[in-house]
Write a structure and sequence with these properties.
- The chain is of the alpha/beta class and 328 residues long.
- It has seven helices and 14 strands.
- Helices cover 26% and strands 24% of the residues.
- The strands form two sheets. It has an eleven-stranded mixed sheet with strand order 1-3-2-4-7-5-6-8-14-13-10, with helices on both faces. Strands 9-11-12 form a three-stranded antiparallel sheet, with no helix packed on it.
């Protein structure tokens, strides 16, 4: 694993390249979580090509944020004080380090049209992208750029696309709120607020843009930076920022929708096996057992996503997903 590059958490850093003709304003972010360094590596590789003249921005502009969370990156851990990719919004009373990042990052995002946010994940599987909702005018996440996101994600160089994040998170919020009220317990102000599910891409959509979260691979997978690099190059080409040929769209697609979130209720809740994201589930498969002996089974065929054996009680333990035909 490559060691994190030294950065200075005392200030925030971005670099913008602007072409001679008008065009799309793209922003690319890395290390929103400090131990996810493949995006930083991919961005630095593209910066070297731009600075050497091997690559040129012909139209529009692209802003790179190689180490979005510099404190977490410096420490080589997921967070500085808290998860930057939750409840991402400016605040007039910043308390923790991530609040200060948000006060800088959110206005920066709002100045752009498109976001490509590069991440990696803990439990190994192939790269995948998180896509926003279909076009809608609902109260949770109104959106009108689904076609643009679907086109963009097809050209990233991967085949697995996942949607349903914020709507499923809202289901979890409703369940936690109901359980707290039923049991007479105080509400956790973080995970009982749908805004807590808002990260970089959700904030970008709220500003009228569109965005993709690309999970490039497992944290220490040496192939992950290459996935991020190719995605940046493909996006620059697709959006017309560079004159390089546009990569062909993915021909084989696995499209999934997250539809359910299950919280860990007790420290003794245990998985039935070591799960990794996108392990297949058949109806009736035993997923885990609660501390009181209650067993949790798969109610339909599908997939387990983001299983977290170390989740704190009251927080997301795993998500469930099933196939959809959105990209058919």
């Amino acid at each position: 694993m490559q060691q994190p590059i030294a950065v200075n958490p005392a200030h925030f850093f971005s670099l913008t390249y602007t072409g001679q003709r008008p065009g799309t304003r793209l922003i690319v972010t890395g290390a929103v979580h400090g131990n996810e360094i493949c995006g930083t590596q991919a961005i630095r590789r593209v910066l070297q090509e731009l600075d050497s003249g091997a690559l040129t921005i012909a139209a529009g502009s692209v802003t790179f944020v190689p180490t979005t969370n510099a404190l977490a990156y410096q420490r080589g851990q997921r967070m500085g004080d808290r998860n930057l990719n939750r409840n991402l919004t400016p605040t007039s009373l910043p308390i923790d380090y991530e609040d200060h990042i948000a006060n800088w990052l959110c206005p920066l995002l709002s100045q752009h049209d498109v976001l490509l946010d590069l991440h990696s994940f803990r439990a190994g599987s192939e790269a995948f992208a998180m896509v926003g909702p279909r076009n809608n005018d609902g109260p949770l996440e109104p959106f009108m750029h689904a076609v643009q996101e679907e086109t963009m994600v097809r050209h990233l160089g991967i085949r697995r696309f996942v949607d349903g994040w914020l709507s499923t998170y809202a289901i979890g919020v409703a369940r936690r709120t109901q359980e707290a009220q039923t049991k007479g317990l105080p509400l956790n102000t973080l995970n009982t607020d749908t805004r807590y599910g808002v990260g970089t891409t959700e904030f970008m959509r709220s500003c009228g843009g569109y965005a993709i979260t690309l999970e490039c691979g497992q944290h220490e997978d040496p192939a992950a930076p290459e996935v991020g690099y190719q995605a940046i190059r493909n996006t620059l080409s697709l959006l017309g920022l560079t004159a390089t040929p546009t990569a062909p769209p993915a021909s084989q697609i696995e499209a999934l929708s997250i539809y359910e979130v299950i919280d860990r209720q007790h420290a003794d809740d245990r998985f039935a096996r070591t799960w990794i994201s996108f392990d297949r589930l058949a109806t009736g498969d035993l997923i885990g057992t609660r501390h009181d002996g209650t067993q949790i089974f798969a109610l339909c065929d599908g997939f387990i996503v983001f299983p977290d054996a170390g989740a704190l009680p009251g927080h997301e333990w795993f998500y469930l997903a099933r196939e959809n035909h959105r990209f058919a």
